């Protein structure tokens, strides 16, 4: 009798189907449009038009808009409707100072993890090397959106590797705004390869298990780039009000 071919475990071969609500799908579509810039800052959003574009009910759109408002990506204007957030100099200052604290702690914790067992060190190095390589690839392509997404992914990897649940939860509350912040910041860097150079020392310090240096370099990176963005936005605001 011919042996039956082993097809392997279905659980490993095929990913399970995830049921996603219409509200979640609508929120995901709108979020990506905002972060990518297809829906520009200050753009007015109407439930009727979005309902037609997304082919869902107005109630579904309304639920999605409320979700994005909680994430800080859109603002509900009384008696007017909804508008896409515009990153102000105050927003940029608050985000870079908050990131500085959260990401410095994460960098310190991951470096301490890397300084532990050889297995932990290898896991940290593999994850961060992969994220840094993805950032370098995106920078070589020159598209700001791709660079910003890879930039964010590297920082998110450090947060995830920290193993600090409450830290990750706090970061999750602002991470969509951080994506927009990073895109705005990276657009001001004259040469894309400089973005990789900004992150290389942080990754190196983490991988070698130097916790104090990892935290300090993370603070320096966030502060330096944050101040550049804040100054740029203040200048834009002053020009607009003149």
Task: Describe the protein in words.
The chain has 242 residues and is mainly alpha-helical. The chain has two domains: 13-84, Arc Repressor Mutant, subunit A, CATH 1.10.10; 89-241, GntR ligand-binding domain-like (Four Helix Bundle (Hemerythrin (Met), subunit A)), CATH 1.20.120.530. It is built from ten helices and three strands. It has helices spanning 10-13, 22-36, 47-54, 58-70, 89-114, 118-141, 144-161, 165-186, 193-207, 211-241; strands at 44-45, 74-77, 81-84. The protein has a three-stranded antiparallel beta sheet. Strand 2 and strand 3 (81-84) form a beta hairpin. Helix 6 runs antiparallel to helix 7. The radius of gyration is 21 Å and the shape is globular. The N and C termini lie far apart (87 Å). Mean pLDDT is 91; it is low at 1-11.
């Amino acid at each position: 009798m011919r042996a039956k071919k082993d097809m392997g475990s279905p659980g490993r071969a095929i990913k399970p189907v995830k049921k996603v609500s219409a509200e979640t799908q609508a929120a995901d579509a709108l979020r990506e449009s905002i972060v990518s810039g297809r829906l520009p800052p200050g753009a007015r959003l109407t439930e009727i038009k979005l309902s037609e574009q997304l082919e869902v009910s107005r109630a579904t759109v309304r639920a999605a808009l409320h979700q994005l408002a909680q994430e800080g990506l859109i603002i509900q204007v009384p008696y007017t409707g909804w508008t896409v957030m515009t990153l102000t100099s105050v927003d940029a200052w608050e985000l870079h100072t908050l990131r500085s604290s959260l990401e410095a702690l994460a960098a310190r914790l991951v470096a301490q993890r890397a300084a532990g067992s050889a297995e932990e060190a290898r896991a940290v190095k593999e994850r961060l090397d992969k994220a840094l390589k993805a950032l370098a690839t995106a920078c070589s392509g020159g598209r700001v959106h791709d660079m910003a997404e890879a930039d964010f992914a590297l920082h998110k990897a450090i947060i995830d590797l920290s193993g600090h649940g409450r830290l990750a939860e706090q970061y999750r509350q602002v991470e969509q705004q951080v994506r927009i912040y990073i895109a705005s910041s990276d657009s001001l860097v004259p040469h894309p390869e400089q973005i990789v150079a900004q992150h290389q020392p942080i990754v190196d310090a983490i991988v070698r298990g130097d916790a104090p240096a990892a935290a300090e370099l993370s603070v320096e990176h966030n502060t330096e780039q944050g101040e550049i963005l804040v100054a740029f936005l203040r200048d834009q605001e002053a020009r607009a009000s003149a």
